[in-house]
Queue: 4 jobs
Job 1
Amino acid sequence: MKISKEIKSAIIGISAIALTIWGYSYLKKQNLFNTSRMYYSKFNNIQGLTKASIVTINGFQVGNVNSINFNPNKKGELIVGYSLFDDFTFSKNSTTKIIPGLMGGAEFKIIPSYDGENATSGSYLIGSSDAGMMSSIETKLAPLDTKLNTILLDADKLLVNINNTLNEDTQQNIRASISKLNQTLSHFKNASKSLETLLADNTNKFGLILDNTNAATQSLKTMTNDIEQANLAGDIKQTITKLNGSLSNVDVLIANFNTISKELSSGKGSIGKLLKDDGLYINLENATKEMEELMREMKEHPKRFVHFSLFGKKDKKGYVEDTKK
């Protein structure tokens, strides 16, 4: 049977149209040979979701997003339609979530629930969306940006104050200070060299000094040994013991003196009575005066008290008062 050119052209055209439709569906990740179930979710913001986005359950692709349209009954709300080509079942209590990608695009995720009535084709599932990684980063970086701006402003003020402080006079003073510091370091370097030269020239002398010091130390050690061998330490100890005994005798004398002082203060003994009894003192004073009067009288009139004779004859007339005076 011979096929005409028209039939061949029609077959080729139909094949091209079918291949084009299959390629378009393949690019949209839809399977034309499998029946799919359609579900819907409502969102206020789809976070860059497109019709070519995949639908996943537990990270596994189970479908594709087919349509995104505005809700005619509520302004600003979007209805996302998505088809599932897997026989995976879940309840109407399941939820959906749009997860924005880091470099653009978004993933449509079904969070399945198995409690309640199973969802069927045409069911609406509750939808929600995450803020996205970039939005979270921007939210966390906002306070840091404010602090960074504050730090930059403070740094700018600090630089302005430094520029105002470091005027021409201040810069000249700093240069002069650095120059003087360099001179000081140069002098210190010269002094260090002089000290090194001095040490190098007098190394032998320092060695002699150390030798003499060692010799003196040995002599002192020998003298100490001689003192220990001469038993001077025992003599010193005996002297200290005798000194301690003398000090003990002194303590006894002091104690006795304190006792005598207490007895005198209390009026005991003759001396104590003399110190404490005013009458005894007055009697002694009167006796002293009478003794002085007697002595004066004996000096002036000795004949009243002394009688003597060359022949041992007593004077019977007795005492005759001298009236020639």
Note: Residues 96 and 110 are 4 Å apart (CA to CA).
Job 2
Amino acid sequence: MALKLDAGKLKELMSDFYILTNIRIVIFDDEYHEILAYPESLSPLCHIMKSHETTRGKCQKSDVDSFEACKNTGKLVIYHCHAGLIEATAPLKDKGVIIGYIMFGQIADTKNKKDLAAVIGRRYQTSSIPAAQWQSAIRKVEYKSLPEIKAAAKILEACTYYVLLNELVSVKHDQLIHRFNQYIADHLQTAMTAQTICENLHISRTRLYELTRQYLGMGIAEYIKEQRMAKARALLAGTDARISEISEMTGFSDYSYFCKVFKKAYGLSPKEYRVKLRDL
């Protein structure tokens, strides 16, 4: 979903986190796309891992696994990535719906860099990455003790509340509701389901239901029917189209059902409604 960022204040907060912890922090949207990082550059080891085809996919899978764990539990998760580094991911929630994630990582939980080198060596000894290259990068990995990692994770969670409370990251509600309304208006003649709406707006089903509840005060099916009836009234009043044509133009393939729904909504059949307007 489209997010609205206060980039200046976000970078200031992320910089403060880095000054305090010396740990890189990254913000992702709900579709797992990176949208902001501090520092912008990767650590030497992660740069190597993400620069090689044999390990790039594993980096991406580690990230996705953490996002999925957040989505399933709704909570912060701390884990080892595929290369043995420690990372933590916390969900950003807007009214209970996950709109993005904050992650920190690229640190080690062991002082003995030989142990870390042994893990990578066992996993990637047959890869195209020269051993000397990643061994040199391992020496530059930041070490944090378990209490320090847990403390940083608590601060990260506090950051998520601060970010949302101050709307440093928020959903572009106006844009989203506009896109939703426009999609409905453009497709009144066709069959619509929650699934097709989600696919075309690129949002989750959960987000769609939250959107309609918050901004429309009714269910999706009810809203679509209301918009179809509104268009039918406009066509009856402003055109000479046959009622059977108006039925099709508003998504009702069954003419009798259209008349039944219209009369239930307005107390008059479509024909009676048109006659009444013209008698005014």
Note: The first strand starts at residue 3 and ends at 5.
Job 3
Amino acid sequence: MELKIIALEKIVEDPDQPRKVLDDATLAGLADSIRQHGLLNPITVTPLEGVEGYRIVTGERRWRAAQLAGLFEIPCVVAEPAEDTAARVSEQLVENLQREDLAPLDKARAIQTLKETLAATNREVSQRLGVSERTVGYLLDLLGLPESIGEQIVNVGPRPAEGQLTEKHGRFLKQLNDQPDLQAHLVEKIRGEKLSADDAGKVVKAIREHPDKAEALLGGKFEEIPSILGISREEAPSFSVGGAFLKQLDRIPGILDEIKLEKASMADLPSIEGKLIAARESLDRKLAEVRAALG
């Protein structure tokens, strides 16, 4: 597979794919998101036979929304035509999961298709794909989200970019499925305030425990939540601005402890020493910055 920028006019929908009912409002919302943030997840296409063009494998909604957004070309993952067998489906899915080429929602759809094709359990699917059963369950959970939100969840690797929706965000957002207006508002809050998944989870928890204050919780800043709930910061330190910063600092000793020197040699010493000195200098600069800001 390869990633290519392809003109929209050269892409067609899959005629063999059962046509989904596309809600105009959610499609327009996705188009607005694409105008603001670009197309975050490439669609997957396969070459057409005999002509210069491509057929959509996954991502038809994104393709249509990109047209509404006024784009002329979009990023696409180009896959080879596949045989319609369970073995081939699982082989492609394993490759996609390893390469992170497929958007989380598309992974979830593919896993669900594989489950139905094989009449398999989550555990059996996880063993076939070589991933944990928990990962399979988490991905399938995304199918319970409104599609307009699920489409916004991106692959972000071990260090999520601020303001993007991750699979973990999705698990918390799913708890508000019965309150779609609040759910959509929280998505905007996550993007606007660049909330981590854990912080989004705290907002959801506060909403569930204090439904009468839901609008105020979503309308105010994250650090204002204690005052909205009528509690002191001492009673709710996790809602302080510095809470996330302190958690990040807590990770530093663990990261250093994980560095193993068994395979290092004397030839590596200058490089190791230089990187550790640079790290110490970064810590000194951050300490000076904190003292200047809070002192």
Note: The chain has 14 helices and five strands.
Job 4
Amino acid sequence: MMTGEATSQEGRETFWAASGYSLLAEDDAGRLAVTPEFVSAWLHRPEMQPIETSCDAEIALLEQLKADPLRDVSDAELAHVSDADAVDNFRVFLAFRDHLTAARTVEAAYVALTSAGAPAMPAIFLDQLVHVILRHVLRTCSDPIRLRASEIFFREQNVSLDDGRVMLADTEVVELYARNGGLGSLGQLLAESGTPQKQVELDVLAEENAAIYWGRSDSFDTVIDFRFGLPSVDGFARTLEAFTRHLTGHDVRVTPQRQIDDEDWRWHVGLDPTSNGILNRLYEGADVPLEERALLLGLFDLRFVDEAAVIERLRGHPVHLALGMSAEKRVRMKPHNILHNLPLAAAS
């Protein structure tokens, strides 16, 4: 999404440069303070760029905002923009900009935008905020498999079940390759003409080839096997811990599980719509068919290090977490579910 080079962290490889992390400043509390440069980067998104039919007023306003992203924009200025879609894009940007600057930090903006009653924003805005928050949270991470598993937090995944494996590939990349074989405009031309193309296979990231991730992290073009017991699942669990700690201030321990075996089940959080629905039904004692249970790709137990942080009836009991895929075999995680649905004592 964003321009600007990321700086290395203590000699480690860089990753996720497009998150915009290098455009932000860390405040005294360790949060990401919003800067004009970070706000300006959103103006470079493809949706904001002029097209052949863009009017002079649209082009001028965009250039003025790029030079001063915090400037006021009046309704009268927007009225001079002839393209209604461009006006809508400006209004969405301005609303988001004002929300970011009012929140002062990226973390506060994200939590507020995912809270009840928050103004509606395009999902991609939330994804980009999670992207840069995790870039900060994982800034000292040197494990490519964990970083690749963390992409699940902000990038939709396609699931392929093959020989007992659970292969996750980035949906956008899969669709790009499906359209043009990963060969850009040439591949698109070949696809439209019916010309046979060489099959392009995405690399499966494993311990023996993990180093390839460093040069390709912004391409999102590697695949992981997300089966229980593999490093990808453990890495995902560690990022759940770090994400929760950073945004709630509470230390938690997240442990992957093969199944939920709890006769005194008291709390759960689905990390996506599919798993949330299945967990609700299982908790209520409903008979969930095996084919639906198979949509659950990952099960986890979350426990608070300080049990005084949770409501009394949850002390000594885990919070069951699940990650699932839709019937179309897609994973669309909603990481804010874990922030707003934990049984915190202060929220009771």
Note: The longest strand covers residues 296-304.
